[in-house]
Amino acid sequence: MSESRTHFGYETVDEAAKAERVAGVFHSVASRYDLMNDLMSAGLHRVWKAFTIGQAAVRPGMRVLDVAGGTGDLARAFARRVGASGEVWLTDINASMLAVGRDRMVDDGCLQPAVQCDAEALPFPDGYFDRVTVAFGLRNMTRKDRALAEMRRVLRPGGRLLVLEFSQVRKALAPLYDLYSFSVLPWLGRQVAGDEASYRYLAESIRMHPDQETLKTMMEEAGFSRVRYFNLTGGVVALHEGVAP
Ligand code: SAM
Predict the structure, then answer these.
(1) Percent helix, strand and coil across the chain, each rounded to 5?
(2) Which of 76, 140, 142, 154 is the best mutation target for the ligand 1 pocket, counting ligand atoms within 8 Å of the beta carbon and taking the most?
(3) How many CB atoms lie within 10 A of CB 217?
(4) Ligand 1 and 52: CB distance under 6 A
(5) What is the CATH number of the domain that holds 123?
(6) pLDDT of 153-182, one tens digit each?
(7) DSSP state, 43?
(8) In total, how many domains does the chain have?
(9) Which range of residues forms the domain containing residue 55?
C-alpha cells in the first residue's frame, strides 16, 4: 500500500478520504452504538471490557487516557477507580460519539474532561499518563503507526498501553464467524440502526486489521517493551499490552 492510500474496509481509498468515511460511520451509529454493541456481541463486549479494566489495574491518583473512547465504557470504569486525586481523559475524534460518552460520564456523576482529538496527534505533553487505553478504535485509524507512537509519547516511563481490538479468530471458528459477520451483522444494522453499510464496514475492517502477532510487532516498532497479548473468545478479540520504556 502506497503512503497516501489505505483501506476502508475492503476498499482502497485515499488517506484523507478514510478519516471522512470513518467519521460518517460513527456519526451515523452514535445514538444506537451501545444497543448495537450489546446485540451484536450478545453482551460479550462487556466481558472483554471488564477483562481490560482488570488488566489495566488503575489505582487512586493515576492519570488515564482513553483514546477513541466513544461512549465511554472504559473511561467511566476508570473514573470510579482513580478517585478525586486522579484524572481520566475521555477522548475521541468524533463529536457525536464523544457527546454520548461525555453525557454518560456526567449522568454517572463523573466530572472528568472530554476532549475531541485525533489519536494521531494527541494534545497532551510527553510522559503525562500512567495508562493509555484504546478499545475497538485502532482499527479505524488511518496511520496506526503514528497513533501508537503518540500513545507511547504521552505515557510516562513504565506506563502501560492496553489495546482491545477485534483480531484473528481460531481457524475452526472462521466459517461460522464469517457467516455471522457478513449476513447477521449487516441485517442487524439495517433492522436496529437503519444502517446496513456501517455494519458491513465493521465486518470488513475487522478482516483488514493486523492479526495478533502483527499488532504485537507494530507495538514493538512503536517503542513498547514487554508486549504481550491475550486472546479472548477464541481470538474474536485480543487485548495487547505494552510498557513504555
Ligand atoms: N472505545 C469505545 C468502545 O469500546 O465502545 C468506542 C469504540 S468505536 C468502535 C471506535 C471509535 O474510534 C469511534 O468513536 C471513532 O470516532 C473513534 N476513532 C476513529 N478514528 C479515530 C482517531 N483517529 N482518533 C480518535 N478516535 C478515533
Answers:
(1) 50, 25, 25
(2) 140
(3) 12
(4) no
(5) 3.40.50.150
(6) 999 999 999 999 999 999 999 999 999 999
(7) T
(8) 1
(9) 5-243
